[in-house]
Amino acid sequence: MEQQHSASSADCAAQFDRLLLTGAAGGIGRAIRHRVAQFARQVRISDLPGVLASDAALHEEIVACDLADRQAVDALAKDCDAIVHLGGVSVERPFEEILEANIKGVFNLYEAARRQGVKRIVFASSNHVTGFYRQDERIDAAARKRPDGYYGLSKSFGEDTAQLYFDRYGIETVSIRIGSVFPEPKDRRMMASWMSYDDFHDLLRRSLFTPDVGHTIVFGMSANAHTWWDNRCAAHLGFVPRDSSEPFRDKVEATPPPAPTDPVAVLQGGAFTTTGPFDPV
Ligand code: NAI
Ligand code: 15L
C-alpha cells in the first residue's frame, strides 16, 4: 500500500464538463494535452493563432486566441468550468512582451473567468517568483516574493490576481510555482528544480479536483535528492511526487560545472537573475 499515493478527495473520477487549456502548443501543453482528456468531457485547446494544427480529437475543440485580446479571451472562457492556464511568455523577455502576454493576459483570463462563471483555475506560476533566494536556502509558499526579472514579476502579478479573484469573487486557484518541467534535467541547477511530466500531471489533477483550495500556492518539483522548496503550505493537496532527477545525475555532471560564484550555482533563479535588462538600441 503506497500511503503517500492513497486515495484522497482529489482521486475521485470527477470530471468537468468543459476544461480550457491555454498554451497548448508549448512544451508542457504538448506533453499533457492527451492526458487532460480524463479531466473533462470536452477540452477546449488554445494557443496563439497559427501555432496549433487543426487536428482536434473527438473530445477537443481548438480555439486560437491571443491572451492579450480581452474580448477574445472572454469568448474563449465561455461555457468552461475550469481553466489550466499555461499560455504566455515563458522566459525572460523585454517588458513590453511580458506585459501583453503575461500581465494583460492573466488579467484578461481572470476577468473572463469572473464574467463566464469559471470556478477553478490552475495557474502556471514559476519558481522565478522567488528566484533571488539562494540555493542554500529552503523556502515555503509563505516566504516573501523575490521575483528575479520581468517574467518573475508577471508570475507574481498572476498569483496576486488569483488571490484577488478568490477573495472578491470566490474563484479558486492553485498557483503552481513550477520548477523545471522538461523531459529531463538539463543542468546542475535542474537537479533540484526538475519535475517530471508524470508528477506534473498528478499535481495538476489534485489542483483541479481537491475541494476548497481557495488560493493555494504549491511548488512544482519531483522528489529530487535535494530541493529548495517546502510544500507544507499546500499539504491539503496531498501531493507527493514519485520521480526524481537522480537517474540523470551522471549525465548532468559529465558537463563542466559553473564557477562556484556564478549566479547559476548560487541563486535559485539561476540565469534568469542576470538576463536583461533590454535597453532600447
Ligand atoms: P512554452 O513557452 O513552451 O509554452 C507557452 C505557450 O504559450 C506557447 O505555445 C506560446 O505560443 C503560448 N503563448 C505565448 N504568448 C501567448 C499569447 N499572447 N496568447 C496565447 N498564447 C500565448 O512554455 P512551457 O514550458 O510549456 O510552460 C508552460 C507554462 O508554464 C508557461 O506559462 C511558463 O511560464 C510556465 N512555467 C514553465 C516551466 C517549465 O519548466 N517548463 C517552469 C515554470 C513555469
Ligand atoms: C521557467 O519559469 C521557464 O518557463 C522554463 O523555461 C525554465 O527555464 C524554468 O523556469 C526553470 O527555472 O528552469
Automatic annotation (TrEMBL):
Gene3D superfamilies named in the record: NAD(P)-binding Rossmann-like Domain
GO molecular function per UniProt: oxidoreductase activity
Name of this chain's protein: NAD-dependent epimerase/dehydratase
Region span, Disordered: 246-281
InterPro entries recorded: Epimerase_deHydtase (IPR001509), NAD(P)-bd_dom_sf (IPR036291)
Compositional bias of kind Polar residues: 271-281
The keyword Aminoacyl-tRNA synthetase belongs to this UniProt entry's keyword annotation: no
Organism listed in the record: Caballeronia catudaia
Top-rank lineage group of the source organism: Bacteria
Domain NAD-dependent epimerase/dehydratase intervals: 20-192
Family the entry assigns: Belongs to the NAD(P)-dependent epimerase/dehydratase family.
Protein keywords: NAD, Oxidoreductase
Record keyword Oxidoreductase present: yes
